[in-house]
Amino acid sequence: MPHEVCLVEPAGVTPQLSLSRMLRPEDGYRCKCECWTSFSAGPNFLGAQLLLAVAVPECWAAISFFRTQSCNQGRTPTLAVVPSESSEELLRSASDASDDFMFWPIREQELLERVKRLIGAATRDKDTVQGVLTEELGLEQVIGSSPAFIELLAQLTRMGPSEAPVLITGETGTGKEVCARSIHLLSRRRQQPFIPVDCGAIPEHLAESELFGHARGAFTDAHRDHKGLVSLADGGTLFLDEIDALSLNMQAKFLRFIQESTYRPVGGEQFCRANVRVIAATNRRLEQSVLDRQFRNDLYFRLNVLRLSVPPLRERRGDIALLARYFLEKLGGSGVPARKWLSPVALRKLEDYDWPGNVREVSNVMQRAIVLSPGSQILPCHILLSTGDPRGIECTPSPSNFRCAKSKAIEAFERQYVLDLLQKHDGNITRAARDADKDRRAFGRLAQKYKWDTSL
């Protein structure tokens, strides 16, 4: 089925200048052409998947239509084309009413990419409505329409029905937990619990109790039996964020649970069984962590059955405008008296930025812009962006960060000293501690701190 596009242009436009020549039938488009004179009297674009509104040259009929369209909640996706030298009134009305807009003159390839993005993936068949509803339920929090993002959605829908473990990789703020929730909601377990665990926030001495629970009397403050997060996730999905933060000792215990689906609470006498699907996430390269002996290779291979790589926002720039408008709508209602909109130049500033903090940073920037803009229009001066990339920040000796540099130097020395001694004594903590003239328990804590598996 061809994609239906309603094209509105000024009266008298020649076929050589009409945008219909770029949306050819052989490329899967069917254009219904209208002129502003008749269109403003009674717009008729029912059934169209996209409204392509060309206001070149600028005309009052286009401005009037955009004003009306901005009040229409269930409007057809709209792509506006305006002159590069447009009046403020046209820019404002077009920005309010359109999902995207371009400045004249335009390039054919750019037009086709934006049209594809607004129309979305191929039209689904009516017979798959039930499947579509399931997908919508699982993907309603996932925003984007760039080719990289469409591929990500396709992978999510394929991974959802499976029972295999999933390893999600991606930079901080890319939405790994949202993807994990989507996989859960697309699975047969969607009616069961989804239990997220931030491994980096659990103290090492409490990790086993938090995950597997403990029996009454297991330690001083254990006055009653306590269910762990694995037990709470029984029948559903357990999401382990920052899986690389688990100690090597804890990784070994979790590996046994994945292999056998059984675990023993701390201080318990009996093994328990849990039917859990495991999804893990990390922002590090686990392959390198395995080589550095900071992550168990057997656990890595157990988790790395289905691999999902979430692309950073700088690799899907076409989604920046969608995300900015989404957060503008979502955050604009909280304590803000009037609806706000992004000026074209502010939008361009957002699209030119690399977003090291990814989607989370977009949310923060838009929230800040809403608060700082006194009127209804958000200008470039209200878009405050980071001047440096936190991914590249290093603690180097300087008068302003002496404490940080000192801490780094001590940590580097400790790590190398401890690992060298352990290698010298084949991992024997007692002999290594005696050689270092240090208490065995204190040396053991250092070994655990630097990810040496003391159980080996």
TrEMBL record:
GO terms for molecular function: ATP binding; DNA binding. Gene3D superfamilies: 1.10.8.60, Homeodomain-like (1.10.10.60), P-loop containing nucleotide triphosphate hydrolases (3.40.50.300). CDD domains: AAA. InterPro entries: AAA+_ATPase (IPR003593), AAA_lid_NorR (IPR058031), Homeodomain-like_sf (IPR009057), P-loop_NTPase (IPR027417), Sigma_54_int (IPR002078), Sigma_54_int_dom_ATP-bd_2 (IPR025943). Keywords: ATP-binding, DNA-binding, Nucleotide-binding. Residues 142-371 form the Sigma-54 factor interaction domain. It comes from the Bacteria. GO terms for biological process: regulation of DNA-templated transcription. Pfam families: AAA_lid_14, Sigma54_activat. SUPFAM superfamilies: Homeodomain-like (SSF46689), P-loop containing nucleoside triphosphate hydrolases (SSF52540). This is DNA-binding NtrC family response regulator. It comes from Edaphobacter aggregans. The lineage of its organism: Bacteria, Pseudomonadati, Acidobacteriota, Terriglobia, Terriglobales.
